[in-house]
Backbone:
């Protein structure tokens, strides 16, 4: 779950302004961070698909 949120934040940061990010290699792993002083971006919640109104489907004439 935490990894999903971090990836969502990174995706949003890349879309808004790539220059706000800095990269560094740590122990052979690429680390991407927001630069100091850059506002933290809250991840956007993905919209859930609308649930169909089952009662309306049952009462609708065919």
Residues:
């Amino acid at each position: 779950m935490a990894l999903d949120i971090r990836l969502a934040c990174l995706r949003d940061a890349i879309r808004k302004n790539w220059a706000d990010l800095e990269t560094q290699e740590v122990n052979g792993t690429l680390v991407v961070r927001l630069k100091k002083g850059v506002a933290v971006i809250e991840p956007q919640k993905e919209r859930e698909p609308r649930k169909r109104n089952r009662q309306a489907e049952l009462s609708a004439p065919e």
About this structure: The chain has a mean pLDDT of 72. The chain has two helices and two strands. The beta strands are 21-26, 29-34.
